[in-house]
Records
---
Amino acid sequence: MSESAIAPSVDAVERVSTAPGFFVCFEGGDGAGKSTQVRLLAQALESEGRDVLVTRQPGGTELGAAIRRLVLHGDHVSPRAEALLFAADKAHHVDELIRPALAAGQIVITDRYTDSSIAYQGTGRDLGADEIRDLQRWAVAGVLPDLTVVLDVSPEVGRARRGEQPDRLESEADAFHDAVRQGFLALAAREPGRYLVVDAGLAPEQIHAVVRERIDEAVAAPR
Ligand code: TYD
């Protein structure tokens, strides 16, 4: 008997089914172009008559919007408090929006999810990727994406694309953003079947085409 048959991966044990809906997440560093890709994908799916819910973290609910203001635009927040605030946002968000939408058969597209916290708080803030992963898994009660698209951006390109008024996390140094990038890539390498890594330096339409192809395969495949 193979080792994996004796000890199934934690992901296999903890992950709950998202059927009848389908759950897609876009992740990546600041300036990766996630919001453009979220918009292109939602428009394409909606034009085919699919029922789509677009949301983002932090935010998406009234409580989430309040947490977003505190954690991104407020004064200093201690790293552990920051991790807990992002976890609280996701816990509420999953209960209020994501789980009901998936249960109703919608395609949920989210701009950031648990991996952002693992990469930013776990790797970037150095709180420990495994600890933040456990915290996030608990917060979302095993509701994980069917597909996570990582838009891989270098700190230099990300910096050049950011707006004039960076938020608390965007203002961090390149070393922080590089650690975040490595965090995302490590997560994708662990579970290639559930991830798609795309070079964020490609043209938006090229990225969209790669994402579309993978979504079509994934939606058609049994889950
Ligand atoms: P985002 O919504 O992508 O920013 P914007 O709309 O300004 O482009 O993300 C906001 C910031 O929050 C981003 O720097 C990443 C950070 N973040 C975390 O650090 N942990 C998390 O769990 C999430 C969801 C976001």
---
Amino acid sequence: MAAPVRLLVATRNAHKLVEIRAILDWPGVALVGADEVPGLPEVEEDALTFEGNALKKARTLRDASGLWTLADDSGLEVDVLGGAPGVFSARYAGEPTDHAANNHKLLAALDGAENRSARFRCVLALAAPDGREWTISGSVEGRIALSPSGTEGFGYDPLFIPDGYDQPFAAMPAQVKNSISHRARALAAAAAAWRDLIND
Ligand code: IMP
């Protein structure tokens, strides 16, 4: 049997890597975390779109490693805030990333707001060793809770209640989040579109 193709996951976010490992199960593909490959550069996420940042991360680490590379850029879009924090989700309350401060700032921004509708969006980028590149996206609609609850997940999970549920992601078992999340939906689309590309 042929050795599995190594697919580098271009993230240093341990939570994202755990979720991607839990969801992505492509025959013939072995996932490699960015921390397992020495000497990879840090990537400044300075694009103004999820697509731009995902492509930049995938391309930069593909160029540095020579491996097939998958990147995830994702964030929360709140309608009454005009789509903020959007691409700035990780650093909404400043740098370095502080999830509790981000959630606190979001609740303050929505103080008294009746419309609390929001969505998580995830764009995946795949970069091939030969220079080809693709993107694919997934999203999940929901609303922002009045106060945080739950201990699972990361980021805005204590505040984001997906449509059809009455609890935020952080109060659900990981398997439930991983069956309906923006990341799960993007990875499902990626499985259909990309698995054969990598194995060809
Ligand atoms: P990125 O590393 O630039 O893609 O930033 C992603 C940021 O968006 C995270 O730091 C979180 O603030 C937020 N985010 C993305 N996906 C999720 C999720 O699944 N749950 C909670 N927050 C998320």
